[in-house]
Every structure is written in structure tokens, then in C-alpha cells.
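ok so for the tutorial part 2 we go from a plain amino acid sequence to predicted C-alpha cells. step 1 is just haveing the sequence, like this:
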Amino acid sequence: MSVLVNEKTRVVVQGLTGREGSFHAGQMIEYGSKVVAGVTPGKGGTKHEGVPVFNTVSDAVREAGADASIIFVPPPFAADAIMEAADAEVELIVCITEGIPTLDMVRTWEFLQDRRSRLIGPNCPGIISPGKCKIGIMPAAIHKEGSVGIVSRSGTLTYEAVHQLTQRGIGQSTAIGIGGDPIIGTNFVDALDLFNRDPQTEAVIMIGEIGGNAEEIAADFVKANMKKPVVGFIAGQTAPPGRRMGHAGAIISGGKGTAAEKIAAMERAGIKVAKSPADIGETLAAALGKAAVSS
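step 2 — the prediction. this is what the C-alpha cells look like for a chain of 295 residues:
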């Protein structure tokens, strides 16, 4: 009941010895994630909070068997950290860092095209498969193991959706926070495809926001490919045109990327769209009920 990460995933923390890296690595370890290494240049050969520290990601892969990375590196150096992990052939890279320069991410996106690595983020809460593995900064206690996949541009709304599901006794297979920056790694379609192919994910929640056309592209994919019920929500419905709201990617330009356009595209694709964030759990429960009756 998970995609991308499970109880066997072995995590290296880039920036382990910094304040954020140290705190969240401890939270991941407490949850049960296998944090097998950290990377801080110049501190190789030491241990931090019981975790071996290496100078490079390639050392962590070779010596500790790391196959996933989480990045807590300051914005000026985060793009290089992503590329270092990809060069070491880490399968999954999760970048939490916010504020990476867009031109740095353009260079990084191009670098990743010829590599085997998958990037989640940047500027995201990460990924969690409840009961198995957490690679990120999300509050673990609100999650429940189950069969609903979640993909979201908003970290806070991810937590809201998860909490509503758990309160209703509905568990999650995997929750993926893809981030709201203009240039990201894993997008809606990538995540939807993973959930569509996962036999134990029964339904999906997709949380988008104003700006860009990612939600419209995802709606086209849902209409053409998804075999499971999809529930959606679009944040920023009251934002005025031209006003940047929250994420760097959440800006309406030239009348495009509005909430109304996105909601209309999603509804045409058969996605049940919640009108308020408070309705996400109820909408999903209703969709599961209808799916159960029809099957």
C-alpha cells in the first residue's frame, strides 16, 4: 500500500548536522524510517545523533547502501546537492529547501533528464507512506495506513486532507507533497500515474492551486487514464489576478491559471472537486462510497 518509499528505503540526509537536518532526521528515525547516513563535507568519519556522517553522497551510497536522499541544504547550495545525489544514482531525492533560485533549478532539471533519479520538490514537505517510511517534515501522528493516495502542491493542505481522512478512519497509501515552485521534479501526472498503477491505492486526492497549467494537464491525464476515483481541490479561489499568493508558482497571468478554469477542467475530467478545504475528506468518502456501490 505505498509508492516510491517503503519499510526497506534507506535514507541519507544531506545537511544532517545542521539544525533543520538534525531535528527532522530525528523525527524520521523516531517514526521508523531507516536513516542510514548523513552528508556534511568535512565531517566524514564522524557520527551525529548515532548516524554515520560522510563527506559525499557517493560515499553514503557505497558505504551505507543509501537509495533515497533528503536535502536540508541552504538555497544557494541546494541545487548542487540535488545534482550530487543524482550523480551518485540515488533513486529518490526529496528536496525540502525553499527559495532555490529559479535559474539554478533550470540547470538542475536539465541535469536530471539523463539520470535515473526521481526528484520530489523542492520547497515541499516530502513523502510519507504511513506505517512504513517518512522522508520529510510532515507531522507523522496525523497519518494512518490505508489505501488513499494524496498528491499536493500545498504542504499545509496536505496535512488538512490527511487529518480529515484519518478522523474518518480512512488511511493513506502514500502522501506526496510535490511543492509549489515554478520548476519541480515530480509533477501531478507523475504521481497520478504511480497511484493508478498501484493495485492497493483505491482513490486519489489531488490538491492544486492557482497559477500555471499543471492542474489542467493533470485533469486531461485523469480523463484519459485513471481507473480510480479522484477528488480535487484548488486553493486560491479568491486571489485577485496578478497577485502572487503563497508559492512562487501560484500567480495568475493574462487571465490564465485561475481557480475557475482549473475547477472546470477537473470537473470535465470526472474529478469530484471539493468547494472548501473543509470538505475534502467528506468528498473523498462520498467518492469511495459511490465506487464501492458501482463495483
